[in-house]
Amino acid sequence: MSEQINEPNISELSEAEENSTVERCLTFESGDLVLYISTKYVIEIINNYSLTSLPLMPPYIKGITNLRGQILPIVDIRERMGMPGTEYTANTCTIVLNIDSIPLGIIVDSVRQVIDIDLKNVHPIPLKRQQKLLDGMVTMDDGSVFMSVDCMALSSPEL
Fold first, then answer.
1. pLDDT band at 66, cuts 50/70/90?
2. What global pTM score does this model have?
């Protein structure tokens, strides 16, 4: 009895390698920027919750909320990036993240959609020293530019 060994086709390997650089990302707006974050950090998107303010906190930390028994700090990403705050609207929502077991909610102007981004097309931001929360940018087929949020910097206490 002879065994037949199936060797992988070279085109199948290159396709698998190409797909390994593609990441599912949630896109959202904050100010005039379109930002994205990997869906591996995203837990859910929430709208209605009670917020408890905390004294002696930086202005971008809006407070905490109890989300099904878990205390969740809420950060306004616009203010965390140094942009002026704005009135919250019906489109404003909070993206609940889990970054290295650290739960965090970020307030964004609006959520757009989930898209696939090829990480090979992401370029470093030239002014990284001035903007420590953003770590890359990608130009989409329609010419729009999306900026990547650095989750490790977002979850760190200091910028």
1. very high
2. 0.82
Whether 97 and 43 have beta carbons less than 8 Å apart is answered as: yes
CA distance 37 to 66: 23
- Residue 61 φ/ψ, nearest 5 degrees: -90, 110
Report the alpha-carbon distance of residue 85 to residue 8 in Å, rounded: 54
Quote the tokens at residue 104. Answer: 């965090």
**β pairing state of 93-99 and 42-46:** antiparallel
Q: What is the pLDDT of residue 11?
A: 46
Secondary structure element (H or E) that encloses residue 104, with its range? strand 102-108
CA distance 157 to 6: 52
| Cβ(37)–Cβ(151) below 8 Å | yes
CA Rg value for the chain: 19
Judge contact between 137 and 145, C-beta under 8 A: yes
